[in-house]
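hey so u asked for the seq, here:
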Amino acid sequence: MNLKEQYRKLLEDARAIAAKAEEEGRDFTADERQKVENILNEAKSLKEKLDRAKEDAEMVRQIMDFEGLFADAPEPKDKKPPAKPGKRGSLGQQFTESPEFKGWMEQYGGQLPSKGRGFSSPSVEFKSLLKDLITGESDDSAGAFVETDYTRIYEPLGRYALNIFDLISRRNTTSDLVHFVRQTTRVQEAEVVPEANVTEYSGATGEESGEKPEGTMEFEPVTAEVKTIAVWIPATKRALSDAAQLRGLIDQELRDDVYEELENQIINGNGVGDNFTGLANTTGVLTQAWNTDILTTTRQAVTTLLVSGRQQATAWVIHPEDWETVDLLQDANNRYYWQGPRGTGPAQLWGIPVVQSQSLTQGTGYLGNWRKMVLWDRQAATITISDSHEDFFIRNMVAILCELRAALGVIRPSAFVEVPFESGS
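ran it, structure tokens below
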């Protein structure tokens, strides 16, 4: 078995040990680690021998390249026979055996003049030169100098933009339950009161009692329970130690996933089990009926919030596809109602800022005073790591966990209007 075959056999043995450990989802055993180290040391020694053999072969090749350039140079005893037709020798051999070179030498009697000056040999075309020097077909040629360029660039798949957090009120809590009082009936009994004109009011015509009307107002207690949103991922200790940046990427990915679910719960939580009660399932939110088209319907929603909700809107929250429909609206002359594709500046609808969110269901948007929704943070998103999960300790694995705890409350449901952005929605 030659050196190359021995070297290849050693590498195959090392790969087999590594493949077995990877298939079983574990690190090397002590015995396997020792075997791999021995194999790599032996392979390193063989590699050095191969490199020296390559260097020797290169020196021989250079010697042969100069063969025959000078007629008075003695022929080496171990001179190789001329290459057979269809076989290529060294560049020097191809040059000296070419018809162009031989014809040129004949004018000097087959021998270069010892004191000649100002002469040069004819050019010789080597059709195989480009392939031999540039394509790098093997590790013995230019391919040995080609190295992989590791850019260290990491491009994540990307996530939805989280925009609702910037609209709502944020507070902290140290409890698992948050209580607040919500008014359900406002005082509406005030009226003009004439001055009393009798000491004892009997109800007779012309008598004024001067009695002031009594007002009434009702409230309801509301309890918002702190909920937990969490996600975890398994990893090997070896992976985390070998790829230093991997831990940071995992942590960020877990946090992003937790906050994405929180924004989804703010809108769509159904209040069942451990789900939040989101805006779409909160009792008392105003509704706007579809009327004619998007522009008419959305303008009437502004009035509904002012008249029925007695609130000034702080923002629209609209699905991106619905906002695209609004942006593309045109008049009878095919002119965009807004500034068109060259328009700049913040997005607005009827003078109210627009926030796009993919947490909404396409076809329905919300207009409201978003400060009337409160998120109480009990525990910000935190990362913990442990090997106590199942048999992770003996398998050199860890669980990386991200979780947050918070409570959500819509303290004034009538501060929001649910608005359809298409007929029938």
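Residues 68-73, 129-135 have pLDDT under 50 and may be disordered. The first strand starts at residue 169 and ends at 172.
lmk if thats what u needed
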